[in-house]
Amino acid sequence: MFVISLALTIVVCTLLSIRTKHLLFAALWLATSNAVVAAFLYALGAHEIAVIELSVGTGLVPVLFVFAVSMMGHLSSVPTTSVSRPLAYSLVGICALLILFSVPSLVSTSPPAFTIGSFSHVLWEDRGLEMLLQIVLIFAGVISILNLLSASRRPAVVRTREDTSAVGDDQREFQREAV
Amino acid sequence: MTLTPFDLGIVAVVALIGIGLYGLMVLRNLVKMIIALQIAAKGAVLALILAGIASNQLNLAQSLAATVILVDTLVAVIGLALAVQLHRTYGTIDLKMLVSRREQPLEQPG
Question: Which of A44, A77, A110 is the C-terminal boundary of a domain?
Fold first, then answer.
């Protein structure tokens, strides 16, 4: 019963995070969904990844979303579509059918002939090189973000008159400096 | 008919990946698209763990899922930084408006 309620809560929270117009509320629903996914992973027996998911998915990611939304001051989204809804529904249905058809072959897989060590052994010994690559990825991500955010201090283009009227005071100051 | 946690996990995987794909196709707001991508990635993490349980390799699946979480978070961070930058440059994060503004001719300074 507990696992059923967890699965239902995951579906409801993800639906609400997609459907709500307010970006801040969408980030909060996403955080709730991540927390429930972490609880679900714990119930499945994946304790280590549940802790990582809880700390990253519920702690770090929502803070980043709230930070970005507060920087943009763009708190609501227009409910418009880029793809027609029937096409989207049919593509999602095809993907769901593909996943469901692949499950019996997954379950009937025979257990491996070799034994796997503990989580820390697999993570740091068997996949040590990949962990080093992940550390490099983290540094590359940090450097790219710093470059992206510092690029706003350099006025690159001067926009048209309509665009100039649509942006804030700080953008007008950039344009005055550029001219 | 009794649903095991594994069966419910399959249902959750289908729901998460389906909702994420639907959001990526339908939404035009960049932040909402990143949220949809996060949801689909959570479905992938859950699918990895279920595959590890089914094949009796849970530790290997957990280490792979940690990689997926890391890359997913990096993608979200870089996407949000790009969205902030686009909002500063063009004043919007709506994809259609961004495309229309790109097609407008720019005035030369001076």
Answer: A77
| pTM assigned to the model | 0.79
Predicted confidence (pLDDT) per residue in A122-145, tens digit: 777 777 777 788 888 888 888 877
For A131, the domain range is: 119-179
Domain count for chain A: 2
Chain A contact for B24 (CB, 8 A cutoff): no
Return the CA Rg of chain A.
23
CB-count exposure of residue A152 (10 Å: 0-12, 13-18, 19+): middle
**B91:A167 CB<8 A:** yes
Residue A28 covered by a domain: yes
> How far apart are alpha carbons A92 and B87 in whole angstroms?
30
CATH number at residue B53: 1.10.287.3510
Supply the range of the domain harboring residue B47.
Answer: 5-103
- Whether residue B78 is contained in a domain is answered as yes
Rounded CA separation B36/B19 (Å): 7
Each residue's pLDDT tens digit, B82-94: 888 888 888 888 8
B43: alpha, beta or left? (left if phi > 0; alpha if psi -120 to 50): alpha
Q: B62–A33: do the CB atoms touch at under 8 Å?
A: no
The residue whose two tokens read 């809560």 is A9
Compute the mean pLDDT over every residue in chain B, rounded to the nearest whole number: 85
